[in-house]
Structure formats: structure tokens, C-alpha cells
Amino acid sequence: MIRVLVCDDEQLLREALGRIVDVADDLHVVGLAENGSQALELVAKHSPDVVLMDIRMPVLDGIEATRLIVRAHPATRVLILTTYDLDSYVYAALQAGASGFLLKDAPSERLRDGVRIVAAGNSVLAPEATTRMIEALRPDLPDESDQHLLAAIQTLTDREREVLTLLAAGHSNQAIADHLHLSRHTIKIHVSNILAKLNLPDRIQAVLAHTRLRPHL
Questions:
Q1: Which of 9, 26, 100, 115 is an S-S bond match for 123, by CB 3.0 to 4.6 Å?
Q2: Whole-angstrom Cα distance, residue 96 to residue 93?
Q3: Which residues form the domain of 35?
Q4: Which CATH number belongs to the domain containing residue 199 in this structure?
């Protein structure tokens, strides 16, 4: 059973999300929080596997709450729920340690699948918003650490660079496999090789790195 905490400052949406999640046999809502501070308290109390986190909330926003949850409770994963208007905030939330993001108007089954994917230790990126988020960013010239990362990217094979580009666009392993006419297992190997060569911990950080350095690639 995957234990889920829902955090949103809008009561109707918070309760609706709770019902959407709780209807699945393998998902169980352990609490509803109306702000980041309350989410921290409930995470400490219930140790959920996944927190569905809004971003703009009173008392403590979702970005800082995500940072504190990930730091204090590494076994708990955070999945950001956002709208098109929050792209820059999403970027900050991913940097804070969130495992991905979905749009608030995503179909119910996609939301439930997102919870399952994140609980399994993987990442979720909403393709509909990823491109908009990337275009909204205006990176400065790369600093020294980014120069090292740029050099590492040059060591990727053409196929690995292709996979990284599709990854950064928000596509799942299966979608990348379908696009490149390869098996999902092969894509998993490519992603693992990419992370190893770039010395990055997960695909979220790979997406952030590609987004930041895209104008210089």
C-alpha cells in the first residue's frame, strides 16, 4: 500500500485530490495538509511514501516545504502539482529535491500513476508543461561547475544525447523507446549511462542540467 499525503491550501481541491487518490486499491491517503508547515508535521507523524505538494501556499510554501521534507525524511518523495503559470516555481521545486511534477488538471489515472511511479523511486515530468518551463528560463553564462558538465556532455554518444534531449522534454522511458524504436530496457541503460557520465544522481537533475545548459549545447 502506497501512503500519500496531500498538501494544498484550497480546501475543495485538497479534498478532491484526496478522493482521487484514495479510490485506488493500492493507494491510501494518510492526511490532508493546508500549507507546507502542516505538511511537515504530518510527514513526521505518518511517514508517507509520497507527498502531493502545491507550491504557492501561506505560512510555508511548497518549495521550502519540499526542501525540508527531502532533507529530514529522505524516504518520502515529493510530487509537485502545478499549473502553466508556475513554471519558474516548478524549476525551483525540482532544485529543492522534488521527484517531478504534474499539472493540476491532469486526468485522475495519470495522477494516480504519477504517485505510483514516484513511490517506486522514479521521476515524473508533465510533458505539457516541460517545454514551456524550459522556454521560460533564461540561463546566464555557465559557471565553472557548468563548464565541467558541458565537457561531460560532450562525452555522450549521439544516441545518449538524443535520449537526454527527449528526457529533458519530459518524455518517459517508454515514450522515448517508442520514439526511437528501441526497447524500454535499452533506454534504461542509456539513461543510466548518461547519469554516470554526467555524475548526476537522477533523471530530474539531468533534466535541470540540460534545461540550464541548453543554450550552450
A1: 100
A2: 5
A3: 2-135
A4: 1.10.10.10
